[in-house]
Amino acid sequence: MGDATTRFFEDLDQRGYEPVLAKVSGALRFDLHEGPQTLHWLVRIDRGNIKVSREDMEADTVVGTSPALFEELVSGRENGLAALLRGDMTVTGDGRLVVQMERIFPGSANSRGPQRYRKGVQ
Questions:
Q1: Planar angle of CA 65, 59, 62, nearest 5 degrees
Q2: Are 44 and 27 in contact (CB under 8 A)?
Q3: What pLDDT, on a 0 to 100 scale, did the predictor assign at position 119?
Q4: pTM
Q5: What is the edge-to-edge ordering of all strands in the sheet holding 61-65?
Q6: What is the mean pLDDT of residues 16-37?
Q7: Which of 49, 70, 89, 121 is in the most buried spot, having the most CB atoms within 10 Å?
């Protein structure tokens, strides 16, 4: 698993509270598939309070993709919606949680419009 993925989830867990998710509650599980192996990251959000674990438990929303693509997403080099539309990523369950969670993924350094969360910039 890539370093950017691990850093992303560890940073998310250490934040404890994320203001942009203050109106969000639910559980998202990210299943990163590589061959026969699947790595799981479970993100629980309770009105902005975040807890991250490596549990393979039931969730409101499950996002499936490859570890390489997820590394690109958390590095800001790939767009989640574009990956979903191409079929490189799957979402089952409550898609609204993915839309809300996407707000804290880093955006491209070349993107225009509202600035997304970037480490050290809020």
A1: 20
A2: yes
A3: 46
A4: 0.85
A5: 49-53, 37-46, 25-34, 61-65, 90-93
A6: 95
A7: 70
